[in-house]
Amino acid sequence: MSRVLRELPKTYEYREVESRWQQTWKDEDVYFKEGSEKPRFVIDTPPPYPTGEFHIGNAFNWCYIDFLARYKRMKGFNVMFPQGWDCHGLPTEVKVEEIHKITKNDVDRQKFREMCRELTIGNITKMRASMRRMAFSIDWSHEYITMMPEYFGKTQLSFLRMYNAGQIYQSDHPVNFCPRCETAIAFAEVNYSDRTTKLNYFNFSGLEIATSRPELLAACVAIAVHPDDERYKDRKGQHLKVPIFGHEVPIICDEAVDPAFGSGAVMICTFGDKQDVIWWKVHKLPLRKAIDKTGHMTEIAGKYQGMDTTSCREAILSDMKAGGILLRQEPLEQRVGTCWRCKTPIEILSEHQWFVKIPHEAALKAAKEVKWYPEHMFLRMENWISQMEWDWCISRQRIFASPIPIWFCKDCGAILLPDEKDLPIDPTVDAPKKPCPKCGSTNYKPETDVLDTWMDSSISVMHVTGWDGSQKVPPLFPAQIRPQGHDIIRTWAFYTILRAVSLTGGKPWEQILVNGMVLGEDGFKMSKSRGNVTVPEEILEQYGADSLRQWAASGAATGSDIQFNWNDVVAANRFLTKMWNISRFALMQLDRAPFKDDAPVTALADRWLFTKLSETVSEVSESLESYQFDKGLKAIREFAWDVLADNYIEIVKGRLYTDSSERDGACVAIRTSLDAICRMLAPFTPYFAEEIWSFMNEGSVHQQPWVSFSYTDEEALKSGETLVQVISEIRRYKHDKGLALNAPLGNVTVYTPYAVDDAGDGSSALNCTLTWKAGMPQLTQVVSGVKFDMGIIGPKLRGKAKGFMQAIEALPKDQLTKVPKTIMVDGEEISVPEGSVLPQLSYTVAGASVDLIPVSDDLVITIDQ
């Protein structure tokens, strides 16, 4: 082991250090090595949406990924930490419209797509820079961008494979539709919010009906009642005329009706909610479309045609009041489905869309085969799969997305498919290379709908494991782990499992690591409207990447939401300062004079340090294996700060300052500990660990194997803890006596049940003559005086207090151990206030007076000054 040749600067300048190492490190050092004999560890990294801002939630998630990637490399794995970009989607379209002051229909379709691509590339460039500054050890040789042909060609290939296997179909079916985005969305993309509305009771041709959506009156197709509801038992099969609109609808019976809600009679409309869809299917009811794709009323709404739903609701209620139809209104609390992108309330519309069949059993089986961290997150997946009633709607009425590779024959309506070798294609640009297989026509029209962006990202694992279509199962499939947030379990996680099952028949990953969300300092979800957003760049500028990374590691248990707190970042920064000072002192001592690198470690303090280091290595290793990053970092901090700095170094300073061979063991212990700390910190604080390592050894700490240190010495652990406790107690004694910690103390004897040899470290650390004796001392207790509690005596005795104290002090010493209940003061017998007199005891050992520190039943310290 080479000696340290350089001295650490006095202060840790994180800006200079982080900038220097960022420029020094080489991308290829963390590339996945093709053909390596090492066990592989492929990470199915989340492809973020390239907004241009790498927000705090991204930073938190990527810290988790980088922790495990760096750890696995040190453990000898061939790690692939790829970076993808999930580019397609509405937010980019909206931003392009805003920047160029246009709508998507103002320019050519391809021109608009090019504008979206240009914005996206610029945003990706900005986010790459943030990721590099955060020291994420990303394998940039495996970067992918979903909007590029080499990626969305695979999306289209997966579409064709699943279509030909009967897993994708096109149909008229009710779908969730966002009138703001003017596109269908999947159930997984529906968020829910609470709102207060009105439940309106009105006269429906003699029957009282309650509805919160009178604007759907034109879409009414039936009235439903419960079959056991006595109020309506004779009404089944009757027809009623719909108020205002005049068409007739039947009264049907269905056990799903809640007789206690409203009037017990329910208006079925196509479609007010999911239950309407179920009734529509079960009872084979007609379809009446009252709302179009833009959220406006259709022609069947009569005079209300063209109104938005809110205006229509107000107009119909006004007309009901005028016509005496509206009976009463009550407030109603309800949960409303909204678009996850724009928060607009969704409508359920029957549209011609593309769907993926949900393989419930196969998907659940694959999800069960994946190991979940934390385990309880699997319940979210299980619940989601079990409650899914509709297939996945994958078509979108947008522009910037992967084109659906389909044409339609104009003459016979048949579907025309491209050959797989011709992918990728854009059917709005490219023509089919073959005539219609059904009628031979060459007249066609392109599919203008595009694919849901989850169709791109849900094959991320197929892409990173090497899928090119030539093999059913990619060469590196399944991946070893999927890290992601709990908010996209029902989307990205579920869709990836579905697609892996459909395309390969197996699970996509061996493990899934689920992290929580980042909350603002106020405990609420970060949002610009709340003003509680903290951006990573601000933290990086003030405290550096390693402090931000520590916050991510220590702020919450795996899977739990984490609240951002500046105090946590400040504490992380202080730890780096403390660790820098520890390292600086240690390296100065190691370089002060030569020492034997292979010197045996025999002194108690050295062996105790090794046992504590061994325990820490074991705990940190176990924590990282189970992705409990908070627990792992806490163990490192406690060892470095509490064990090494506050106890061990203070104990062995005397030996370190000598020039004798006695310092060799301490030097070996310190160097071994500092080496281990650097390796353990490397996944968490890569810049800091690399900087310290560079002053100790050649090469990079990130190219070193994980710590393998193991040391067992039960006697050293027990005796060492006793030594630490004794030194702590005597330092407290000095403090209480008003003595400096380095003040000479005389003779100190420690009595324990077993013999302890501390190699003189205790005497040196305490500046005393410290003697260890096995067994307990023969103590003689002597009353040396009394102590008065003036807080009791003053108020109770007032002017008699002085005479009272003199009378007590005049008592024979054998009476002071148990003061009498009364005493004579100036000829008057007065009561002794309870608790006012405390006997002061002193002890002697073999006739010599000593101060006594009774630490425990079997640990006693005596001090003879």
From TrEMBL:
Signal peptide: none annotated. It comes from the Archaea. It catalyses: tRNA(Val) + L-valine + ATP = L-valyl-tRNA(Val) + AMP + diphosphate. One of its GO terms (molecular function) is ATP binding. Residues 21-564 form the Aminoacyl-tRNA synthetase class Ia domain. GO terms for biological process: valyl-tRNA aminoacylation. A motif ('HIGH' region) lies at residues 48-58. Keywords: Aminoacyl-tRNA synthetase, ATP-binding, Cytoplasm, Ligase, Nucleotide-binding, Protein biosynthesis. Residues 606-745 form the Methionyl/Valyl/Leucyl/Isoleucyl-tRNA synthetase anticodon-binding domain. One of its GO terms (cellular component) is cytosol. PROSITE patterns: AA_TRNA_LIGASE_I. Its main location: cytoplasm. Pfam families: Anticodon_1, tRNA-synt_1. SUPFAM superfamilies: Anticodon-binding domain of a subclass of class I aminoacyl-tRNA synthetases (SSF47323), Nucleotidylyl transferase (SSF52374), ValRS/IleRS/LeuRS editing domain (SSF50677). It is an enzyme of class 6 (ligase). Belongs to the class-I aminoacyl-tRNA synthetase family. ValS type 2 subfamily. HAMAP family: Val_tRNA_synth_type2. Catalyzes the attachment of valine to tRNA(Val). As ValRS can inadvertently accommodate and process structurally similar amino acids such as threonine, to avoid such errors, it has a 'posttransfer' editing activity that hydrolyzes mischarged Thr-tRNA(Val) in a tRNA-dependent manner. This is Valine--tRNA ligase. It comes from Methanospirillum stamsii. The lineage of its organism: Archaea, Methanobacteriati, Methanobacteriota, Stenosarchaea group, Methanomicrobia. The gene is valS.
